[in-house]
Specification:
Blueprint lengths: L1 H35 L1 H30 L2 H45 L2 H12 L1 H8 L1 H35 L31
């Protein structure tokens, strides 16, 4: 009986040790995925940091066109640009650092829960593959190609719709009609710094 008890305790101890090693190994794999995803994580932080400023700039442009005399627009625009730069210099590093600190407890936890060690190894191999690297490097060019074509083909349709929206908003605000801008075509969308396929699997 005593031998059986000692043997059982030994098995339990060995199993716990193997489990601890497995957990440590898996954590290393998760950390590796997060390291490979760092540019995408920083991109998410950048989008979130820049979004409020982008919304404010849309409002500023409307006000500048409707309420600011043309001869005073340039000095005001320079002051606003200086404020935006100061905002970016202050907010972007903070958001980036915070995102990297939060990544292990958010993305990392989801990876740990939903992926096995073998799957994490396969994911890392995929992320590090030359084909994936080439595809990720093309991301900006691919999005720009689509965006440029989309803007060009929808410009004629979008211009009157944008003009009608501007007039409707101006009427609601009791402002004079908006002076037509030099180019009212929709701006080329800024690519969202999201985690793209096949990297998407690491964050979703």
């Amino acid at each position: 009986m005593k031998m059986k008890s000692v043997f059982a305790v030994a098995l339990v101890t060995l199993g716990a040790a193997v489990g601890a090693q497995t957990t440590a190994a898996k954590k290393e794999l998760v950390a590796k995925v997060l390291q490979l995803q760092q540019p995408a994580i920083e991109g998410v932080a950048r989008v979130l940091a820049e979004q409020p400023a982008a919304i404010m700039m849309q409002q500023v442009r409307m006000v500048m066109q409707t309420r600011i005399p043309p001869d005073k627009r340039d000095p005001i625009a320079k002051d606003i640009q200086a404020d935006l730069k100061k905002y970016g210099d202050d907010v972007l590093p903070m958001m980036r650092d915070r995102a990297l600190k939060l990544a292990p407890s958010t993305i990392g936890s989801m990876l740990d829960e939903r992926f096995t060690e073998d799957e994490l190894k396969q994911l890392i191999a995929l992320l590090e593959s030359p084909v994936n690297r080439k595809y990720q490097q093309m991301g900006g060019d691919l999005q720009k190609s689509l965006s440029d074509k989309l803007v060009a083909e929808t410009k004629g349709t979008m211009e009157p719709k944008i003009k009608a929206l501007e007039l409707a908003i101006a009427a609601h605000l009791g402002l004079p009609p908006v002076t037509p801008a030099a180019d009212t075509a929709p701006a080329t969308p800024t690519p969202a710094a999201a985690i793209k396929a096949p990297a998407r699997a690491a964050s979703k």
